[in-house]
UniProtKB/TrEMBL annotation:
PANTHER family: NEUROPATHY TARGET ESTERASE SWS (PTHR14226:SF29), NEUROPATHY TARGET ESTERASE/SWISS CHEESE D.MELANOGASTER (PTHR14226). A motif (GXSXG) lies at residues 37-41. This is Patatin-like phospholipase family protein. Keywords: Hydrolase, Lipid degradation, Lipid metabolism. Residues 6-190 form the PNPLA domain. InterPro entries: Acyl_Trfase/lysoPLipase, NTE, PNPLA_dom. It comes from Polycladomyces subterraneus.
Amino acid sequence: MTKVGIALGGGGVAGCAHIGALCALEEAGIQIDCLAGSSAGAIIAALYAYGYSTKELMEMVPNITKRYLDYDYLAFLSKLIKRHIKIQGLIKGEKFHDLIANLTQHAHIAELKFPLALLSSDLKQARQVVFTSRPLVNPCSEIDVITDIQLAKAVQASISIPVLFKPVMHKGRVLVDGGVMDNCPISAVQALGADKVIAVNLVFADPVDSFDSLFSILARVVSINLAIQAKYTTRQADIVLHPEVSSIGLLDFSKLTTCMEAGYDYTRKRMKEIKAVLTEKVV
């Protein structure tokens, strides 16, 4: 029987589109056999793999607001001024870690029954890190596979955008956002045993008219680089979905519901094509 894997890419708040996409796939009777997530995609992938239904996620996610972003301006500025102290990040990430830990009852990734892979990047070693609940099939020698980590900590590492979030320390590693090295983890879901891969890519580099802040410039630079990366990595997928969320800001929490609806509507529009691809014989 053909195993279907879903690769959920990063994109900040736009990552909520993944919930809508998963819901549309479920309604169409498409069985999801494994998941991989990077950055924002890691949040949805982890909660889904833990056991939350798409309906539960749709009810839960709108309650995640900016109050879970624990900014530490004073500490950041002091570290910036005192050059001998390492700069960590503007947002500590502890509140978000605790939220995920509570939602998953502090489970470790190896305890999950569902095949899951979450991506992060090790700044010290310049290597990709894959947290997984299952042994990988023919893992690449250029990645490090980790199973002995709390699920919430793995998610926190995967979403820790450099400078914006404090890196996650784990057994001598300095872990940051999975999108630094692979923002749409198609190879990871293939390594979990997927025969067919649906990639949900949320990265766009559409033309913009202006930049109103230093953060908007940084976000634009990141999105351009990720869009270039995605042109190559998404070629490995059997079908790539691009929900229409390009106008959503990285941390625009007011658009959570909008993103879920966009993911759902877009995936339904392409369902005939998706089913056709999934029923093609695997060579």
